[in-house]
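Z., the sequence and structure:
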Amino acid sequence: MSAFWLVALVFLLLWLRQPLVVILLGVAAYVQIAWGRGQLDYILEDMWVALDKELILSIPLFILCGNVMTLGSTARRLIRIMSALTQPLPGGLGIAAILSCGVFAAISGSSIVTMLAIGTVMYPAMRAAGYDNRFSLGTIMSGGTLGIIIPPSIPMIIYGLVTEASVIDLFLAGVGPGLLILTVLSGYSLWVNRNMPSQAFDSAELLTACREGAWAAMLPVILLGGIYSGYFTATEAAAVALLYALIIEVWVHKEMKLKDFYQVVLAQSKLGGSLFPVLAVALSLNIVLIEHRVPAQMVGFMQGFISSPLMFMLLVNALLLAVGCLMTTGEAILILAPLLMPVAEAYGFNKVLFGIIMILNLEIGFLTPPVGLNLIVAMSAFKQPFGLLVRAAVPYIAMMLVCLAVVVWQPWIAMYLVNGKFP
């Protein structure tokens, strides 16, 4: 009976259009009263315990780093290098956009930041070069999704927080699927634009681009090299990346002033004000659920109906794809990961692998209406109708679904760096 009233409470809050933090707080309060220790002040204690983790600091630091580079010239310099490399290929500018998104994703950790940083430069350039409007929009929007699968990734950090999975292993596991998607999207650009004229390779332009973009290109090398070599933790790497980005933009490139950083911090503070209360309540609810063995009960319940790991994975993928249409990635991970991960482990799926599969599903959600964030942001940034953006995203959604199926079918693509061996 208590479970019935809990579901009724959730639907009531949804009907009243309450924000996620209010819904989670209501659920946490009800769980504490019905199944917990019966005192609401324990929610505050659990919230403090949940937030008392160094790893949480990496989230605002990575976002700050991405915003600094967007405000400065890092994205533009990376794009110039990629354009010089790909200009001899048909559809080279489209490939350059995807590769630039991939490199920028290895710095920012955010889909929206990646799409805006690369798209604001590449979308006008692609249209001026004669590329189809729907292709240009789809390329920019789908390339932006690489921001959450190519490490470092903010959703991976959130998943690591709520499931206690190794964030470093998650970063390693994201490399293979990220490269797979990048390769497929680049191949699509090459095929669709196979009749477009290409330019001769210009070694002088490449050397100039590399010289002017050398400092920017070193950032992902320092960041990921420090993490994977063990010199940095994820939080330390975020701090180093932010400091490096500030140095090159303020003193080397001289594209921004220190006073501009104040506005970046102010914007980030507003984002943190909406993210961290949700994170605190979700993590505190997770503590209560684990104390009362709710995930273990879910495992027993599902195993009574589903005997096949394949059937479980098909159902989970269908669920996550549906959730990705309705919720943001962070919200979905905070709510579903603590419940689904123990069930996935019971069916033999490693928690790191399951995290990558979950993020791949939710990555597709950035392109699916009605809550596809890349669609919504692109509508504002590029002044295009929502329906056109949805149609532009369709072939890219299909390609990413194929990549998801390949990773589920061949999990070594994600796990070979983690395990240090091929199958």
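Residues 258-291 form the longest helix (34 residues). Residues 9-419 form one domain.

Let me know what you think.
H.
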